[in-house]
Amino acid sequence: xxxxxxxxxxxxxxxxxxxxxxxxxxxxxxxxxxxxxxxxxxxxxxxxxxxxxxxxxxxxxxxxxxxxxxxxxxxxxxxxxxxxxxxxxxxxxxxxxxxxxxxxxxxxxxxxxxxxxxxxxxxxxxxxxxxxxxxxxxxxxxxxxxxxxxxxxxxxxxxxxxxxxxxxxxxxxxxxxxxxxxxxxxxxxxxxxxxxxxxxxxxxxxxxxxxxxxxxxxxxxxxxxxxxxxxxxxxxxxxxxxxxxxxxxxxxxxxxxxxxxxxxxxxxxxxxxxxxxxxxxxxxxxxxxxxxxxxxxxxxxxxxxxxxxxxxxxxxxxxxxxxxxxxxxxxxxxxxxxxxxxxxxxxxxxx
Length: 351
Hints:
Elements: H1 2-30, H2 36-62, H3 69-86, H4 94-120, H5 125-143, E1 147-151, E2 154-158, E3 172-176, E4 181-182, H6 190-209, H7 211-221, H8 223-228, H9 233-256, E5 261-262, H10 269-282, H11 287-303, H12 311-327, H13 329-343
Antiparallel strand pairs: 1-2, 1-3, 4-5
Protein backbone atom coordinates (compact mmCIF):
# COMPACT_ATOMS: atom_id res chain seq x y z
CA UNK A 1 0.00 0.00 0.00
CA UNK A 2 2.87 2.34 0.85
CA UNK A 3 4.51 1.59 -2.50
CA UNK A 4 1.22 2.27 -4.31
CA UNK A 5 0.88 5.66 -2.61
CA UNK A 6 4.46 6.52 -3.56
CA UNK A 7 3.84 5.61 -7.19
CA UNK A 8 0.56 7.52 -7.23
CA UNK A 9 2.22 10.67 -5.89
CA UNK A 10 5.07 10.33 -8.38
CA UNK A 11 2.60 9.91 -11.26
CA UNK A 12 0.61 12.94 -10.12
CA UNK A 13 3.80 15.02 -10.15
CA UNK A 14 4.44 13.93 -13.73
CA UNK A 15 0.89 14.82 -14.81
CA UNK A 16 1.17 18.10 -12.91
CA UNK A 17 4.37 19.08 -14.75
CA UNK A 18 2.69 18.53 -18.12
CA UNK A 19 -0.48 20.42 -17.15
CA UNK A 20 1.53 23.28 -15.63
CA UNK A 21 3.60 23.56 -18.83
CA UNK A 22 0.42 23.69 -20.90
CA UNK A 23 -1.10 26.42 -18.72
CA UNK A 24 2.13 28.46 -18.82
CA UNK A 25 2.39 28.23 -22.60
CA UNK A 26 -1.31 29.03 -23.02
CA UNK A 27 -0.89 32.12 -20.83
CA UNK A 28 2.10 33.28 -22.87
CA UNK A 29 0.22 32.71 -26.10
CA UNK A 30 -2.90 34.56 -24.94
CA UNK A 31 -0.83 37.60 -23.92
CA UNK A 32 1.11 37.62 -27.18
CA UNK A 33 4.46 36.82 -25.54
CA UNK A 34 5.04 33.60 -27.47
CA UNK A 35 7.20 33.93 -30.56
CA UNK A 36 6.26 32.35 -33.88
CA UNK A 37 9.27 30.03 -33.54
CA UNK A 38 8.00 28.63 -30.26
CA UNK A 39 4.47 28.32 -31.62
CA UNK A 40 5.80 26.16 -34.43
CA UNK A 41 7.59 23.93 -31.91
CA UNK A 42 4.60 23.17 -29.70
CA UNK A 43 3.16 20.23 -31.66
CA UNK A 44 6.60 18.67 -32.46
CA UNK A 45 7.40 18.83 -28.74
CA UNK A 46 4.29 16.76 -27.97
CA UNK A 47 5.17 14.33 -30.77
CA UNK A 48 8.66 13.69 -29.43
CA UNK A 49 7.47 13.41 -25.83
CA UNK A 50 5.03 10.65 -26.87
CA UNK A 51 7.75 8.98 -28.94
CA UNK A 52 10.27 9.07 -26.07
CA UNK A 53 7.82 7.78 -23.44
CA UNK A 54 6.66 4.94 -25.70
CA UNK A 55 10.24 3.90 -26.50
CA UNK A 56 11.16 3.97 -22.80
CA UNK A 57 8.51 1.30 -22.25
CA UNK A 58 10.57 -1.06 -24.42
CA UNK A 59 14.10 0.08 -23.61
CA UNK A 60 13.73 1.01 -19.95
CA UNK A 61 10.90 -1.13 -18.61
CA UNK A 62 11.16 -4.19 -20.85
CA UNK A 63 14.95 -4.00 -21.16
CA UNK A 64 15.07 -4.53 -24.94
CA UNK A 65 17.07 -2.35 -27.32
CA UNK A 66 14.86 -1.34 -30.25
CA UNK A 67 16.06 0.88 -33.09
CA UNK A 68 12.96 0.62 -35.25
CA UNK A 69 10.68 3.05 -33.46
CA UNK A 70 10.70 5.44 -36.41
CA UNK A 71 9.21 2.61 -38.47
CA UNK A 72 6.16 2.33 -36.20
CA UNK A 73 5.83 6.10 -36.19
CA UNK A 74 5.96 6.00 -40.00
CA UNK A 75 3.18 3.37 -40.16
CA UNK A 76 0.95 5.41 -37.86
CA UNK A 77 1.65 8.64 -39.74
CA UNK A 78 0.86 7.25 -43.19
CA UNK A 79 -2.15 5.18 -42.09
CA UNK A 80 -3.75 8.16 -40.36
CA UNK A 81 -2.89 10.65 -43.11
CA UNK A 82 -4.18 8.27 -45.80
CA UNK A 83 -7.46 7.87 -43.93
CA UNK A 84 -7.87 11.62 -43.36
CA UNK A 85 -7.36 12.46 -47.02
CA UNK A 86 -9.55 9.59 -48.27
CA UNK A 87 -12.36 10.49 -45.84
CA UNK A 88 -12.14 14.24 -46.38
CA UNK A 89 -15.46 14.36 -48.23
CA UNK A 90 -17.19 11.51 -46.42
CA UNK A 91 -16.51 12.86 -42.90
CA UNK A 92 -16.65 16.68 -42.98
CA UNK A 93 -16.32 17.01 -39.19
CA UNK A 94 -12.61 17.69 -38.56
CA UNK A 95 -12.66 16.58 -34.93
CA UNK A 96 -14.32 13.24 -35.58
CA UNK A 97 -12.15 12.53 -38.63
CA UNK A 98 -8.95 13.33 -36.73
CA UNK A 99 -10.02 11.19 -33.78
CA UNK A 100 -10.65 8.23 -36.09
CA UNK A 101 -7.34 8.90 -37.87
CA UNK A 102 -5.45 8.70 -34.55
CA UNK A 103 -7.17 5.42 -33.68
CA UNK A 104 -6.36 4.00 -37.13
CA UNK A 105 -2.73 5.10 -36.87
CA UNK A 106 -2.42 3.46 -33.45
CA UNK A 107 -4.18 0.28 -34.63
CA UNK A 108 -2.00 -0.15 -37.73
CA UNK A 109 1.18 0.47 -35.74
CA UNK A 110 0.02 -2.05 -33.09
CA UNK A 111 -0.62 -4.68 -35.78
CA UNK A 112 2.87 -4.17 -37.17
CA UNK A 113 4.18 -4.32 -33.59
CA UNK A 114 2.62 -7.77 -33.16
CA UNK A 115 3.79 -8.99 -36.58
CA UNK A 116 7.35 -7.79 -36.00
CA UNK A 117 7.42 -8.61 -32.29
CA UNK A 118 6.50 -12.31 -32.55
CA UNK A 119 9.67 -13.33 -34.45
CA UNK A 120 11.96 -10.47 -33.37
CA UNK A 121 11.52 -10.73 -29.58
CA UNK A 122 13.12 -14.15 -29.64
CA UNK A 123 16.37 -12.27 -30.26
CA UNK A 124 18.35 -10.34 -27.66
CA UNK A 125 20.80 -7.47 -27.45
CA UNK A 126 22.53 -6.37 -30.64
CA UNK A 127 20.61 -8.85 -32.79
CA UNK A 128 17.28 -7.36 -31.72
CA UNK A 129 18.56 -3.83 -32.38
CA UNK A 130 19.76 -4.78 -35.89
CA UNK A 131 16.50 -6.46 -36.89
CA UNK A 132 14.31 -3.62 -35.60
CA UNK A 133 16.57 -1.14 -37.39
CA UNK A 134 16.09 -3.15 -40.60
CA UNK A 135 12.31 -2.99 -40.14
CA UNK A 136 12.42 0.79 -39.90
CA UNK A 137 14.38 1.05 -43.13
CA UNK A 138 12.28 -1.56 -44.97
CA UNK A 139 8.90 -0.01 -44.14
CA UNK A 140 10.14 3.39 -45.31
CA UNK A 141 11.29 2.01 -48.67
CA UNK A 142 8.16 -0.10 -49.16
CA UNK A 143 5.91 2.95 -48.74
CA UNK A 144 7.98 4.79 -51.34
CA UNK A 145 7.04 2.18 -53.98
CA UNK A 146 3.25 2.59 -53.71
CA UNK A 147 1.04 4.88 -55.76
CA UNK A 148 -2.59 4.96 -54.64
CA UNK A 149 -5.40 7.07 -56.07
CA UNK A 150 -9.15 7.30 -55.72
CA UNK A 151 -11.91 8.19 -58.17
CA UNK A 152 -15.59 7.37 -58.71
CA UNK A 153 -14.69 3.75 -59.48
CA UNK A 154 -12.83 3.25 -56.20
CA UNK A 155 -9.16 2.88 -55.31
CA UNK A 156 -6.36 2.38 -57.86
CA UNK A 157 -2.94 0.91 -57.02
CA UNK A 158 0.37 0.86 -58.83
CA UNK A 159 4.01 0.19 -58.00
CA UNK A 160 5.28 1.86 -61.18
CA UNK A 161 3.95 5.42 -61.40
CA UNK A 162 0.69 7.32 -61.09
CA UNK A 163 0.06 7.36 -64.84
CA UNK A 164 -0.18 3.56 -65.04
CA UNK A 165 -3.14 3.36 -62.63
CA UNK A 166 -5.81 4.16 -65.22
CA UNK A 167 -7.46 6.66 -62.92
CA UNK A 168 -10.07 9.19 -64.07
CA UNK A 169 -8.80 12.75 -64.68
CA UNK A 170 -10.93 13.99 -61.79
CA UNK A 171 -9.48 11.37 -59.42
CA UNK A 172 -7.43 12.22 -56.34
CA UNK A 173 -3.94 10.97 -55.64
CA UNK A 174 -3.72 9.73 -52.05
CA UNK A 175 -0.17 8.40 -52.02
CA UNK A 176 2.42 9.39 -54.62
CA UNK A 177 5.40 7.12 -53.94
CA UNK A 178 8.50 9.04 -52.76
CA UNK A 179 6.53 12.29 -52.91
CA UNK A 180 4.30 10.96 -50.13
CA UNK A 181 0.91 12.38 -49.20
CA UNK A 182 0.04 16.01 -49.85
CA UNK A 183 -2.91 18.12 -48.78
CA UNK A 184 -3.28 16.54 -45.33
CA UNK A 185 -5.75 18.43 -43.09
CA UNK A 186 -3.77 20.31 -40.45
CA UNK A 187 -5.80 19.19 -37.45
CA UNK A 188 -2.95 18.90 -34.92
CA UNK A 189 -2.98 21.53 -32.19
CA UNK A 190 -1.03 22.01 -28.98
CA UNK A 191 -4.13 21.27 -26.91
CA UNK A 192 -4.70 17.95 -28.69
CA UNK A 193 -0.98 17.19 -28.38
CA UNK A 194 -1.08 17.73 -24.61
CA UNK A 195 -4.16 15.52 -24.32
CA UNK A 196 -2.36 12.75 -26.21
CA UNK A 197 0.72 13.21 -24.00
CA UNK A 198 -1.43 12.80 -20.89
CA UNK A 199 -3.15 9.73 -22.36
CA UNK A 200 0.26 8.25 -23.22
CA UNK A 201 1.56 8.89 -19.72
CA UNK A 202 -1.60 7.43 -18.19
CA UNK A 203 -1.29 4.23 -20.25
CA UNK A 204 2.44 3.77 -19.67
CA UNK A 205 2.54 4.68 -15.98
CA UNK A 206 -0.47 2.53 -15.14
CA UNK A 207 0.98 -0.37 -17.10
CA UNK A 208 4.28 -0.05 -15.22
CA UNK A 209 2.51 -0.01 -11.83
CA UNK A 210 0.19 -2.89 -12.71
CA UNK A 211 0.67 -6.62 -12.23
CA UNK A 212 1.63 -6.91 -15.91
CA UNK A 213 4.20 -4.15 -15.47
CA UNK A 214 5.79 -5.95 -12.53
CA UNK A 215 5.98 -9.10 -14.65
CA UNK A 216 7.66 -7.15 -17.47
CA UNK A 217 10.24 -5.72 -15.04
CA UNK A 218 10.82 -9.16 -13.53
CA UNK A 219 11.66 -10.47 -17.02
CA UNK A 220 14.02 -7.54 -17.54
CA UNK A 221 15.82 -8.11 -14.24
CA UNK A 222 16.15 -11.90 -14.47
CA UNK A 223 14.61 -13.78 -17.35
CA UNK A 224 15.38 -17.25 -15.99
CA UNK A 225 13.99 -16.49 -12.53
CA UNK A 226 10.83 -14.98 -14.01
CA UNK A 227 10.27 -18.01 -16.23
CA UNK A 228 10.85 -20.34 -13.29
CA UNK A 229 7.90 -18.85 -11.38
CA UNK A 230 5.54 -19.24 -14.33
CA UNK A 231 5.70 -15.82 -16.00
CA UNK A 232 4.95 -16.07 -19.73
CA UNK A 233 8.04 -14.39 -21.22
CA UNK A 234 6.72 -14.08 -24.78
CA UNK A 235 3.33 -12.72 -23.71
CA UNK A 236 4.64 -9.88 -21.57
CA UNK A 237 7.50 -8.88 -23.86
CA UNK A 238 5.08 -8.78 -26.78
CA UNK A 239 2.62 -6.75 -24.70
CA UNK A 240 5.19 -4.05 -23.97
CA UNK A 241 6.41 -4.03 -27.57
CA UNK A 242 2.88 -3.74 -29.01
CA UNK A 243 1.75 -0.98 -26.64
CA UNK A 244 4.95 0.92 -27.41
CA UNK A 245 4.38 0.52 -31.17
CA UNK A 246 0.75 1.71 -30.87
CA UNK A 247 1.82 4.84 -28.98
CA UNK A 248 4.51 5.51 -31.59
CA UNK A 249 1.67 5.31 -34.14
CA UNK A 250 -0.21 7.98 -32.15
CA UNK A 251 2.89 10.19 -32.31
CA UNK A 252 3.02 9.60 -36.06
CA UNK A 253 -0.64 10.58 -36.48
CA UNK A 254 -0.10 13.80 -34.54
CA UNK A 255 3.04 14.51 -36.56
CA UNK A 256 1.47 13.87 -39.98
CA UNK A 257 -1.49 16.17 -39.32
CA UNK A 258 0.89 19.03 -38.56
CA UNK A 259 2.44 18.93 -42.04
CA UNK A 260 1.29 19.92 -45.51
CA UNK A 261 3.30 17.09 -47.09
CA UNK A 262 4.24 13.76 -45.52
CA UNK A 263 7.22 11.84 -46.90
CA UNK A 264 8.61 8.51 -45.72
CA UNK A 265 12.16 9.85 -45.90
CA UNK A 266 11.50 11.86 -42.74
CA UNK A 267 11.27 8.64 -40.70
CA UNK A 268 14.88 7.59 -41.08
CA UNK A 269 17.51 6.07 -38.82
CA UNK A 270 18.22 9.46 -37.24
CA UNK A 271 14.65 9.66 -35.90
CA UNK A 272 15.04 6.33 -34.07
CA UNK A 273 18.41 7.40 -32.68
CA UNK A 274 16.96 10.76 -31.57
CA UNK A 275 14.21 8.96 -29.64
CA UNK A 276 16.82 6.68 -28.06
CA UNK A 277 18.87 9.75 -27.06
CA UNK A 278 15.82 11.16 -25.27
CA UNK A 279 15.42 7.89 -23.36
CA UNK A 280 19.08 7.53 -22.42
CA UNK A 281 19.65 11.13 -21.39
CA UNK A 282 16.36 11.30 -19.50
CA UNK A 283 17.24 8.10 -17.64
CA UNK A 284 16.46 4.59 -18.83
CA UNK A 285 13.21 3.59 -17.14
CA UNK A 286 12.58 7.16 -15.96
CA UNK A 287 9.36 8.26 -17.65
CA UNK A 288 9.43 11.78 -16.26
CA UNK A 289 13.04 12.12 -17.37
CA UNK A 290 12.05 11.13 -20.92
CA UNK A 291 9.44 13.91 -20.98
CA UNK A 292 11.93 16.53 -19.82
CA UNK A 293 14.73 15.32 -22.11
CA UNK A 294 12.45 15.29 -25.16
CA UNK A 295 11.31 18.87 -24.49
CA UNK A 296 14.79 20.25 -23.76
CA UNK A 297 16.61 18.52 -26.60
CA UNK A 298 13.89 19.31 -29.17
CA UNK A 299 13.53 22.97 -28.27
CA UNK A 300 17.19 23.78 -27.59
CA UNK A 301 18.57 23.63 -31.16
CA UNK A 302 15.75 25.87 -32.41
CA UNK A 303 16.06 28.35 -29.56
CA UNK A 304 19.80 28.62 -30.22
CA UNK A 305 19.40 29.07 -33.98
CA UNK A 306 20.41 32.74 -33.74
CA UNK A 307 23.79 31.61 -32.38
CA UNK A 308 24.62 29.89 -35.65
CA UNK A 309 28.35 29.46 -34.91
CA UNK A 310 27.91 28.17 -31.37
CA UNK A 311 24.53 26.42 -31.56
CA UNK A 312 25.79 22.85 -31.88
CA UNK A 313 28.59 23.48 -29.38
CA UNK A 314 26.08 24.53 -26.70
CA UNK A 315 23.81 21.62 -27.68
CA UNK A 316 26.70 19.17 -27.25
CA UNK A 317 27.60 20.63 -23.85
CA UNK A 318 23.99 20.20 -22.71
CA UNK A 319 24.02 16.58 -23.92
CA UNK A 320 27.19 15.86 -21.96
CA UNK A 321 25.83 17.63 -18.85
CA UNK A 322 22.59 15.64 -18.97
CA UNK A 323 24.49 12.40 -19.44
CA UNK A 324 26.69 13.14 -16.41
CA UNK A 325 23.71 14.26 -14.34
CA UNK A 326 21.82 11.04 -15.05
CA UNK A 327 24.61 8.47 -15.03
CA UNK A 328 27.68 9.66 -13.11
CA UNK A 329 27.86 7.87 -9.69
CA UNK A 330 28.59 11.12 -7.80
CA UNK A 331 25.67 12.87 -9.50
CA UNK A 332 23.33 9.99 -8.66
CA UNK A 333 24.48 10.15 -5.05
CA UNK A 334 23.91 13.90 -4.92
CA UNK A 335 20.45 13.59 -6.47
CA UNK A 336 19.47 10.87 -4.03
CA UNK A 337 20.71 12.85 -1.06
CA UNK A 338 19.25 16.27 -1.86
CA UNK A 339 16.51 15.94 -4.48
CA UNK A 340 15.12 12.87 -2.75
CA UNK A 341 13.93 15.11 0.05
CA UNK A 342 11.54 16.82 -2.33
CA UNK A 343 10.32 13.90 -4.42
CA UNK A 344 10.39 11.29 -1.64
CA UNK A 345 11.93 8.62 -3.75
CA UNK A 346 15.29 7.22 -4.70
CA UNK A 347 16.77 8.16 -8.04
CA UNK A 348 17.89 4.58 -8.50
CA UNK A 349 14.31 3.34 -8.63
CA UNK A 350 13.96 5.05 -12.03
CA UNK A 351 10.19 5.48 -11.82
